[in-house]
Amino acid sequence: MSNSPDDYDRLLRSNLNRVFNERDAAKRADAIAELFVETPVMFEPTNIVSGRAEISRVAGELLQQFGPDFTFVPVGSAVGHHGLAHLAWQAGPKDGPIAVTGADVAEIVDGRIARLWVLLNAAA
């Protein structure tokens, strides 16, 4: 992966769609193996998650908690350079109101996500 905006956009959109919107644990694990370094770290507002298996577990529990129609949708395109990328998103039921908005900020190493910060916007 180069440092082009298209590469950052592809990587962070794939993370949303193939990890945080994927309900099949095996498919999610395959995506994480492709998109993340061997020992990634994810920083949530109230938790720090280490390792691919733990990131998969957290994503799966999140989807289970919010129900079968809950979906993360990118807002705009990811931007980034020099190994740092940002993608805004919104989430909620597919046909319902937006429940939460935020952004993912990722440190990219050798074309994969090494560290991921999940930032949540304050409720309106």
From TrEMBL:
InterPro entries: NTF2-like_dom_sf, SnoaL-like
Cleavable signal peptide: none
Domain named SnoaL-like: residues: 20-115
Transmembrane intervals: none
Gene3D superfamilies per UniProt: 3.10.450.50
Protein name: Nuclear transport factor 2 family protein
Native source organism of the sequence: Bradyrhizobium aeschynomenes
Biological classification of the source: Bacteria, Pseudomonadati, Pseudomonadota, Alphaproteobacteria, Hyphomicrobiales
